[in-house]
Amino acid sequence: MNILERYTAMEYGPAPESRSEADRWIAGRDFSQALFIDGKWKKSSSGKSFKVVEPSSGKTLAEVAEATAADVDAAVAAATRAAVKWKNAGGYERARVLYAIGRGMQRNARLFAVLESIDNGKPIRESRDIDVPLAVRHFIHHAGWAQRLDNQFPGYEAAGVVGQIIPWNFPLLMLAWKIAPALAAGCTVVLKPAEFTPLTSILFAEICERAGVPKGVVNIVQGGPEAGTAIVEHPDIAKIAFTGSSEVGKIIRRATAGTGKKLSLELGGKSAFMVFEDADLDSAVEGLVDGIWFNQGQVCCAGSRLLVQEGVADAFVEKVKTRMARLRIGDPLDKNTDIGPLVAPSQLERVTGLVAEGEKQGATCWQPECALPAQGYFYRPTLALGVAPANILAQEEVFGPVLATMTFRTTDEAVELANNTRYGLAASVWSESLNLALDVAPQLKAGVVWINGTNMFDAACGFGGYRESGFGREGGHEGMFEYLVASGKSRKKAPALPGPKPAETAALVEGPIDRTPKLFIGGKQVRPDGNYSSIVLDAKGRPAGEAGLGNRKDIRDAVAAARKCTAWPLATAYNRSQVLYFLAENLSVRADEFANRLSTLTGATAKAAAAEVERSIEWLFACGGMADKVEGRVHNPPARAVTLALNEPVGVMGIMAPTAEPLFGLVAPLGAALAMGNTVVAVPSETWPLLATDLYQVLETSDVPAGAVNIVTGRAAELSKVLAQHDDVDGLWCLADAETCRTAELESAGNLKRVWTSGGYAADWGKGDATLDALLRRAVEVKNVWVPYGD
Amino acid sequence: MNSKTQANLAAGGASLHALPRAEAHGRAMETVVRNPGMALDAGWLEAMRHVNRSALERRVQTLAKRRSIKNDNQAAWLLRSIALMDLTTLNSNDTPERVRRLCAKARNPLSAELREGLDLGDTVIRPAAVCVYHPFVATAVEALEGTGIHVAAVSTAFPHGLAPLRTRLEEIRMSVADGAGEIDVVIPRGLVLGQHWQELYDEVVQMREACGEAHLKVILGTGDLSTLRNVTLASMVAMMAGADFIKTSTGKESVNATLPVGLAMVRAIRAYRERTGYLIGFKPAGGISTAKSSLDWLVLMKEELGRRWLEPDLFRFGASSLLTDIERQLEHHISGRYSASYRHAMA
Q1: Which residue has the higher pLDDT, B23 or B177?
Q2: What is the pLDDT of residue A764?
Q3: B59–A283: do the CB atoms touch at under 8 Å?
Q4: Which of A103, A366, B275, B329 lies most in the core, judged by the most C-beta atoms within 10 Å?
């Protein structure tokens, strides 16, 4: 075409980003020595390698050394050797290193971007304008946390050697999200990139060399499942951070159960994109482009479920179609490309299959008639209409450019549909009414909510999911805790407390009138479902009462009651505060009675028993005082927006109280959970449950709403497992022997509930991770609500 | 509208004479039927209130980065920028001689070397119009005789619009009488800020009547309107009242044509088209002085409204210094050497 013909046609034409520097970089590397261990470039101990393929052409880019378990071992050993020195290097030293990494990446930003697009297939605009700048931002942001760690996180220290496993959809960005906070916290790292996309991590390791990262502080092992498994199972790794599928996340949860490893999981999603009738529809369409057609839809927080209010649904869908027809699919290195290829043939197959299945299940799928390149793993943007909530396209994470559309009538229905998923990563809310948007945001089960926006990320703002989208946060203040542990954690093994041996007498020693301690469920005293009891002995071995033996059905009922209780989570913090104060007040009135019970049962001296009661009252008083003070933060992303990090209750929490300190051991976790608005199913000390059954009388007189606290007495190991397996339980605190704790973690994998265990150690209340503040922090989920503004 | 006028209008964009228009891929482009206007629809205005500034800003921030125009395409697009230009002089020290100089530049915007280097052959690429104050309309009409270049007059007490309606309307009639084919009117911004939609509508309807067959471009003075919502609503009222074009600014406000404002206006144009079927033109003006920024606007039009809006009957730049920068870029395209302004004939 000559210029005049182009003048008539007014087409964009190709605008290719040069790949020559990237090709030169690739040609100059010996990928058979691509394992970055202890500051050196190593071969695989097995000599094995894997092929890295360019998704837009199917051509092989490199043959990269594949790490074995032995290589991982070497990397962990190097990280372990480097750990103490790095932790003690001082905040300023670590900050300078993080800063140098960030600047080093910035100086090579275009090389990173081009390599990323070649390796992953994402459009160069995205790698250049989003992935790389954001990765740089993470290092520079975290330099500050590194330097001021001791001041900002008093009482916490580096977790140790961390193992990190990242996916292929944002290879460099996920690396940054993992490594920056870890280094800032003083941890050393063994990171495994995805097999599909190792290139930018290798360039990153070169930057680390130049930035003066001490040997062994950052180790990057390339490889597949063998290396991943070796990391997850390595005994010297203190913390695992994983981003990837929910399926693998659950495997990792199970594999780390009982090992004492810290764990954070950032998993899949099926995020709702909600368009209300008063939304700026044209802008919402653009939001959708950024939501589901960003990175070919291969985004864990992709807005893959469009929920649109009936009144504007037709108009909106028309707008979406018009916009889709303008999307350009093609070479990821063309600056005019909106959608590149999927990362691999397996993904193309998966997306194709899911769409076919969705159609079979009644969805109507629409695609624009755009040309596809002859080679490469391309898939057209797809709009699925008439998708019922039961359709596979509404339920399954597609991880491709496929949008499932549903309509809603009312705000309540919108929220219900949005929450009708096992996932809980993100959501977008489009409405010009901040009243509506700020009403909806807290009702969504999602770790990130974007109001009138989508896929906004920043190093200062936490990112992470609810439900089966995982747990833990990445970024910001909340993200730092994932790489920190409380200093001075108790290492006392939980004392074996078999309880007193039965004495000869069999007569109950209670007062003049017989008493039946019951379970306390939904605000009512109820008999156990199985109608069995177990004799509770006092310190001298005499029967002190018969406590109900709760079973799985009692747990079921208790969880249902806890779920049904909305009065407590929706109560104002001031209201909860007053109830907890009142609880302390009423316990105080009956302090002598509880002290007597304690000393009778446990044999504690009168003084010690009175002290435990007094500590319980004081703790409840503190919980009342803190109920309205554990506030969120307001993050400052570099945009005209505020990001509200809201502390929300975890939800329904199971509490396995320890055997020891049968009053305080129950009151301490219970008070903290209640203070933050959780509803609780508590299983009290198996040996001395009568303190708990006495306590429900105090609860009854203290304005605690029905269902906020449920008490099921019985056999701890059995009930703990039922709680762990219950998919409507959101969190579980288990203060028990090692095996019960391990089982709790193992069985929690079903719905990835948030679990905190004492790991078989005694709870050292008031110290380490058992301070009131630590408990309160664990009793909340942080939800980041992005609110861009401007009129 | 009488049937003769209607037939005239159906034949081409402008009422006086049609502007040259491309045929894309051999297909004739959709004809612009002149917008007859409609009754003021308050309900529709209410529905158009939902304009989210930060989302619009994000859209335009990434828009220019999502599309890149290189090499021969870039040269072609820059030629397009010239053809879409209202070459403008609106200064208090304008004189007939200055206007004649501008017209000479409009007649002959590209040097022979550039035309040759771009292989334009006999094709003449010129600005669509020259835009002047009323006293210079006759001068410009004479100077542009036979070129097909329109003469646009800014009118109605430009740039503030704060003269009596009677004199403002008379000003339009006088410019039309002097031969202006296009009238760029300003609205009193206070009518928007006070939400006096009926009054604004009535004024624009009368301005349209005063224009007769001359095309009406309604300048909103967006820099004075405070919110994008106001920009959208004022756009809608202007179109309902029969505007042929809506235009951002006079060039005299402290903030001129910005991409977010442009996006709000082109979305309003899209909404009007979807509802009524009429195609309304858009003219950003003020502050567009670099070749690169002109490409950003063309991308905005192509992405939001489509190829049809890259023709002079539906899109114009109001610009005075843009042409020189485009000449420099075109010279660079041909020679590979960066050019200097003084190498190109001034207006």
Answers
A1: B177
A2: 87
A3: yes
A4: B329
Active site residue A370: no
Distance CA A709, CA A673 (A): 10
Q: Which whole number is the average pLDDT over A98-121?
A: 98
pLDDT of residue A371: 86
A161: left (phi over 0), alpha (psi -120 to 50) or beta: beta
The dihedral region occupied by A235, where left means phi > 0, alpha psi between -120 and 50, and beta the remainder, is: alpha
Contacts of A432 in chain B (CB under 8 A): 49-52
Q: pLDDT confidence of A98, banded at 50, 70, 90?
A: very high
* DSSP H/E element including A139: helix A132-147
The rounded distance, in Å, linking the Cα atoms of A449 and A462 is 11
What is the phi/psi pair of residue B71, to 5°? 55, -130
- Looking at residue A59, its pLDDT comes to 96
- Percentage, residues of chain A above pLDDT 90: 95
Do the Cβ atoms of A280 and B51 come within 8 Å? Answer: yes
Residues of B in contact with A335 (CB under 8 A): 65, 67-68
Q: Do A549 and A714 meet the contact criterion of CB atoms below 8 Å apart?
A: yes
Cα distance from N-terminal residue to C-terminal residue, chain A: 45
Candidates B58, B68, B76; nearest CB to A7: B76
Residue of B22, B52, B55 lying closest to A8 (CB–CB): B22
- Unique residue bearing structure tokens 């990090």: A645
A500 pLDDT tier (thresholds 50, 70, 90):
confident
Q: What is the pLDDT of residue A667?
A: 98
> For every residue of chain B, which 3-state class applies, written as one string?
CCHHHHHHHHHCCCCCCCCCCCCECCECCCCCCCCCCCCCCHHHHHHCCCCCHHHHHHHHHHHHHHCCCCHHHHHHHHHHHHHCEEEECCCCCCCHHHHHHHHHHHHCCCCHHHHHHCCCCCCCCCCCEEEEEHHHHHHHHHHCCCCCCEEEEEECCCCCCCCCHHHHHHHHHHHHHCCCCEEEEECCHHHHHCCCHHHHHHHHHHHHHHHCCCEEEEECCHHHCCCHHHHHHHHHHHHHCCCCEEECCCCCCCCCCCHHHHHHHHHHHHHHHHHHCCCCEEECECCCCCHHHHHHHHHHHHHHCCHHHHCCCCECEEECCHHHHHHHHHHHHHHCCCCCHHHCCCC
* Residue A344 DSSP label: S
Judged by CB atoms closer than 8 Å, whether chains meet at B79 and A287 is answered as no
Return the SS3 of A24.
helix
> Does the beta-carbon distance from A335 to B57 stay under 8 Å?
no
Residue B31 has pLDDT above 80, yes or no: yes
Select the residue of A3, A281, A789 nearest B75 (Cβ to Cβ): A3
Instruction: Tell whether B64 is within 8 A of chain A (Cβ).
Output: no
pLDDT at B259 > cutoff 80: yes
Q: Is B227 on the interface with A (CB under 8 A)?
A: yes
The DSSP element (H or E) to which A405 belongs, if any, is strand A402-408
Q: Over the stretch B207-250, which tens digit does the pLDDT of each residue have?
A: 999 999 999 999 999 999 999 999 999 999 999 999 999 999 99
Rounded alpha-carbon distances, angstroms, from residue B30 to A199, B15, B311: 49, 16, 11
Does B66 contact A432 at a Cβ distance shorter than 8 Å? no
Computed over every residue of chain A, the mean pLDDT equals: 96
How many beta-carbon contacts under 8 Å exist across A and B? 112
Q: What is the pLDDT of residue B9?
A: 37
pLDDT per position as a tens digit, A25-64: 999 999 999 999 999 999 999 999 999 999 999 999 999 9
B window 145-184, beta carbon within 8 A of A: none
* CA–CA dist A708, A680 (Å, integer): 6
Option in B23, B73, B310 nearest A12 (CB):
B73
Q: Which of A339, A450, A420 is nearest to A55 (CA)?
A: A339
